[in-house]
Design goal:
The structure holds two protein chains of two kinds.
Chain A (H helix, E strand, L loop, with lengths): L23 H13 L3 E6 L2 H5 L5 E2 L5 E4 L4 H18 L7 E7 L1 H5 L2 H9 L4 E7 L34 H6 L5 E6 L3 H13 L3 E7 L3 H4 L6 H10 L6 E4 L2 E4 L1 H7 L8 H6 L5 H5 L3 H20 L7
Parallel strand pairs in A: 1-3, 1-4, 4-5, 5-7, 6-7
Antiparallel strand pairs in A: 6-8, 8-9
Helix pairs in contact in A: 1-7, 3-5
Chain B lengths: L1 H7 L7 E2 L13 E5 L9 H5 L22 H5 L5 E5 L4
Classes of the chains: A alpha/beta, B alpha+beta.
Chain lengths: ~300, ~90
């Protein structure tokens, strides 16, 4: 069992970056680098992370980093992964570094899905991390394919009318060796899943819920609390998928085993400003019921992969 | 190919990693986290949850030069050892 004392002290994400106060992406980068170590090549798909790494000629990330175009997360990783393998074969590199793609939900759900799908199908050896803040935060909070039903964005002023899609399930359908969802509120679960992804060869897909304080309209100090509530209410399910089997982890596991009671989705909606419009409108109750149904449907679908439920 | 590389060198715009690439981000702070060492039980939660890597793991000292004052450490501290205090006008 890993404890906080086992986390490496070395910081590869340096203090004083251009990230907002309480940014989930900067915290996630910190945690991911602790797990992956210095021997990592980072590819950043256009997102907030392209900004928070600092501006030329200074950088907050103490790793080889390449900024790539919006739609090219998977394609760039394929190129870097092939180059790394060629260098090892020629003897110019002693061992293969980790290739890590860092993309937001826009660069994964909407714009980057075709290149990610292609790279997964080619069984490219890389780790893809999607930090999902459920909107295009970098360009001023527009809706994305990950925005949940009822959420306010600048392009859905009355609340989004459609459900979000479940991209982790799409990645499971690619039969890649490892798919996992993580939350910042459960850092050891996050750390262990990253360590596991590091050891596995092939395409690894990890998705993290990234509550964005300015986009979701809550105080920056509540970032971890909102992350935790998302898991406790079932709006974000923690699991890992390996060898055709899904295992629930951390708080989601405790909820499904009946050790902890699931919180109502309303508790999660009420602590964010982006659901204020829909909750105060006549459709508020209906949206809440639809989200509650979405949660139970997602759990049922995932349980189809869990051996003990089949 | 490798001879050419030696002659030409690498020609690319490259950023250098430094602490404080956005300047002294501590100036953004409105509330300042103040730690009470008597209450601290060294659970390391503040160190783990700091998005800016502004705490040291050993001494749990806060780096006020870069701390942006997000307040996550004060909310997550289980013993209430960190308090957010309004910054004086500088």
């Amino acid at each position: 069992m890993v404890s906080f004392k086992d986390l490496p002290e070395e910081e590869l994400f340096l203090a004083g970056s251009t990230a907002c106060q309480g940014c989930p992406s900067s915290l996630a980068l910190r945690m991911a680098f602790k797990a992956l170590g210095k021997d990592t090549i980072l590819l950043v798909v256009a997102s907030c992370t392209s900004v928070l790494q600092g501006s030329y000629p200074l950088s907050a990330i103490n790793l080889p980093l390449m900024n790539v175009a919006f739609a090219t997360g998977g394609a760039s990783a394929s190129g870097v992964s092939a180059a790394v393998k060629a260098l090892v074969k020629r003897g110019e590199l002693a061992e293969e570094p980790n290739v890590l793609v860092w993309a937001g939900d826009g660069g994964t759900y909407d714009i980057g899905i075709q290149s990610l799908s292609g790279a997964a199908e080619r069984e490219t050896d890389f780790i893809y991390v999607c930090y999902n803040n459920e909107m295009y935060s970098n360009t001023g909070t527009q809706r994305s394919g990950a925005t949940p039903l009822g959420a306010w964005t600048t392009t859905t002023p009355g609340g989004k009318a459609q459900h979000r899609k479940d991209i982790a399930q799409i990645m499971i359908a690619h039969r890649i060796p490892y798919v996992a969802t993580v939350s910042l509120a459960y850092p050891l679960d996050f750390y262990q899943k990253m360590l596991k992804a590091k050891e596995i060869r092939g395409t690894k897909y990890i998705e993290m819920l990234a509550p964005c304080p300015p986009g979701w309209k809550f105080p920056s100090a509540q970032m971890i609390a909102v992350s935790r509530m998302a898991v406790q209410s079932g709006m974000w399910l923690l699991y890992e998928h390996e060898d055709g089997e899904t295992r629930f982890t951390a708080a989601t596991k405790r909820i499904l085993e009946g050790k902890v009671k699931k919180r109502p989705v309303k508790d999660y909606l009420e602590i964010q400003g982006r659901f204020r419009q829909i909750l105060s409108s006549p459709e508020g109750q209906q949206a809440e019921d639809m989200l509650e149904k979405e949660v139970s449907e997602s759990i049922r679908r995932l349980q189809g992969w869990v051996p003990e439920y089949i | 190919m490798s001879r050419e590389k030696e002659e030409v060198g690498y020609m690319t715009s490259m950023s250098r990693p430094v602490k404080g690439c956005a300047g002294d981000t501590g100036e953004w702070r409105v509330f300042r986290p103040v730690k009470n060492d008597d209450k601290c039980n060294r659970c390391l939660l503040c160190w783990v949850y700091c998005p800016e890597a502004c705490l040291t793991k050993e001494a749990l000292e806060i780096d006020y030069q870069y701390c942006k004052g997000c307040g996550i450490c004060a909310v997550e501290c289980p013993t209430g050892a960190i308090e957010m205090v309004k910054e004086e006008k500088r």
